[in-house]
Amino acid sequence: MPRAMWAGIAAMSAIVPFMEDMQYRVRKRIIGNVAGVICFVALYYLLPPSIYAYIGIIGGIGVGFFSKNMDGRQYLIRFGALANAAQTYGLKGAVSLRVIQNVFGVAFALVFCIVFYWMMSKSCKLASNQV
Residue 124: pLDDT band by 50, 70, 90 thresholds? Predict the structure, then answer.
């Protein structure tokens, strides 16, 4: 899977100790990823091709402006990775890889944590019955 670290980073960013918080983060991650990709594609078509290599820098500057607002950063963080991937895989390949791998990463993390919490609750009940 090319750019497999995108799925790992997405999973890592979604896992938190409480399931309610995790479900919220999974939703925000997916929405932020799709919105960031849409913003990137809009810039890609609006800017001249000579600027494509600098879209990542534009995103980095934007992240600095939104340093206290994670919602704003969610959209801009993707620009650098997408700009690099677009050079290798083309725009369609980079966008589809980014969305698919991020959705897979957070969905996998959510399913893993649901199964893990279920197994831990069964283990705790079994341990309390033996005491």
Answer: confident
